[in-house]
Design goal:
Chain lengths: ~290, ~260
């Protein structure tokens, strides 16, 4: 077996080990890489940034813990931006294992917003985020298509109470809020086909401005909806989250992870090249020998 | 962070490492993690469904907020209909009465299809068709636009030509020869570029999961030695080193086994 045959039959565990070592080293060594912001992320940030205080943003946290790594940073960045701008937020979690994570995000952001901070040169005074006044967490209901359609008529149809059992009419921020007509936009952070339902059953039926936050795997499939104007913005994967963090001047886990991401990609490209060089040289050798 | 929280975080770190150990080979630690995640997910889902769906949407509406056995005097007795339909689904478990479950399933599929067909057609077919063609015939899109901008006329031409060529590739009633074959070949190139973009995003997604685990393990390691934590005690690093000793022992055992196999 020559070197090129060995390149093709390299034990995959060496690839895993090499990748892990590179990722750990780049995690330990602290340095920044520039984040290039794309238009599709900028439009989301600009939309939220130009809303007036007390306007309502609907954030759909529709993912399970297996997508937490990519979507939680996105959710944190968008939600903190909303609360810092004194916007009201309605939150749902239409993925069955999502409510716990949504609650974790709300509590973490509430802690963060308590502190004075400066973002993009603007000083934001810390304040307390209160359930029912600054946000309403509606929780989970099954059959997301019907829930999305039902909320278009009245939030109280699928959600007679919020996640904590309080009737929606008892929540101060829900007074006079009937359906999507009172909501400025829907930011749907998605890890599955609930994104399709938001496009077809939500935006397509009730015509509200919709932006998507997606896992990397889904990213390429949803660009056609950006082109058709059905969504006004799109954040895909950890890179999308890092772009939003960059725009909001609120660096978090996504921006921190991008330097590891870059070197991990270089490692993968390196192994792809090794495999391909091995394949083509072996193929050429066999052809030359007339086999 | 108190010691109880640290222990749970340590358990999370252990499960992370146990799951990654599968990359080397299948082992009991991986099995523990695998079974635990399946069991916890199922248990969590059942409780969530009970408290977020069955209780508020059915039981409370039937009981008007009273005890469940007072359903008979409910002011909304029509909620019995979905309750009975739901109960009919359980007949799936009986060989003799499974046919009863076809009624609620039929009703559900009928409603779902009725809702889905017009909305899916309008939003995922018609609007996409319109968007594919609109940009090409709108000359304004070509003026003063960045070539790489997804909404520019140049991109629209590629989208339109790519869509048509892709359709040519999947038309198998005619041999892929001559001009037809060339267009089909362009179509497969476009498809491959699309798959390549998806692959790139997929790699990013998978690496992101790994990065998150590294970040979490890093935070766990920091918490073990964080002297600024008012609840910090000698138990924190002790637990950390215990886990590390366990991993080292496992790796050592595997190395010895590997060496013996080689010998």
């Amino acid at each position: 077996m020559n070197i090129f045959d060995k390149m093709m039959s390299l034990d995959r565990r060496w690839v895993f080990l090499f990748l892990a070592v590179v990722c750990v080293i780049t995690y330990i060594v602290d340095f920044q890489i520039p984040i290039r912001v794309e238009n599709e992320v900028k439009t989301i940030h600009e939309f939220i940034d130009t809303l007036k205080p007390d306007e309502i943003v609907f954030i759909a946290i529709d993912y399970d813990p297996n997508a937490l790594a990519e979507l939680h940073p996105m959710c944190y960045a968008v939600m903190e931006h909303c609360f810092r701008k004194n916007l009201k937020v309605i939150i749902t979690a239409l993925s069955q294992n999502g409510p716990g994570m949504a609650e974790q995000a709300i509590f973490d952001i509430a802690d963060s917003v308590k502190m004075d901070r400066e973002y993009n040169g603007v000083h934001y005074k810390g304040r307390e985020i209160r359930n029912g006044i600054d946000y309403a967490f509606l929780g989970y209901k099954p059959y997301f298509q019907l829930v999305i359609l039902g909320m278009g008529q009245n939030f109280r149809l699928p959600f007679p109470t919020d996640y904590y059992g309080t009737p929606l009419d008892s929540l101060p921020m829900m007074q006079g809020v009937q359906n999507y007509d009172q909501v400025s936009c829907v930011i749907a952070i998605e890890a599955g086909n609930i994104a399709d339902a938001w496009i077809a059953y939500g935006q397509g039926r009730f015509y509200f401005p919709l932006a998507l936050g997606l896992t990397g795997v889904m990213g390429a499939d949803y660009y056609p909806y950006l082109n058709s104007g059905q969504v006004f913005g799109l954040m895909a994967g950890l890179y999308g989250a890092a772009q939003y963090e960059e725009l909001a001047d609120n660096p978090g886990l996504a921006k921190d992870g991008m330097r590891i991401q870059v070197y991990a990609h270089l490692v993968i490209i390196f192994f792809i090249l090794i495999g391909n060089v091995g394949y083509f040289v072996s193929w050429y050798e066999k052809k030359r020998q007339g086999r | 962070m108190d010691f109880g929280t640290f222990l749970w975080t340590t358990f999370g770190a252990f499960l992370t490492l146990a799951t990654f150990s599968f990359l080397y080979k299948d082992n009991p630690f991986y099995k523990i993690a695998e079974h635990l995640v399946v069991g916890v997910s199922a248990g969590y889902f059942v409780i969530i469904l009970w408290h977020n769906a069955l209780v508020p949407l059915l039981f409370q509406r039937l009981s008007d907020g009273d005890w469940y056995f007072l359903w008979l005097n409910s002011s909304k007795p029509w909620y019995w209909i979905p309750a009975i339909l739901g109960a009919m689904m359980w007949t799936r478990f009986s060989r003799n009465y499974a046919w009863i479950s076809r009624w609620p399933i039929g009703l559900y599929i009928g409603i779902a299809a009725g809702l889905a067909v017009p909305l899916e057609m309008a939003n995922r077919v018609n609007k996409q068709l319109y968007a594919s063609m609109d940009g090409v015939i709108n000359w304004g899109n070509f003026l003063g636009q960045d070539f790489l901008d997804v909404t520019s006329g140049y991109s629209q031409v590629i989208i339109f030509a790519g869509a048509i060529a892709g359709l040519f590739y999947f038309f198998f009633s005619k041999a892929h020869t001559g001009v037809f074959g060339s267009v089909a070949k362009f179509g497969i190139w476009i498809l491959m570029i699309g798959f390549g973009a998806s692959f790139g995003y997929t790699v990013m997604g998978r690496i992101s999961l790994f990065i998150n685990r590294i970040q979490e393990l890093g935070l766990w390691g920091e918490a073990a030695f964080d002297a600024s934590n008012p609840n910090h005690s000698g138990w924190f690093p002790a637990v950390f080193w215990l886990i590390m000793a366990g991993i080292t022992a496992y790796v050592a055992v595997e190395l010895v086994r590997f060496a013996r196999q080689k010998a």
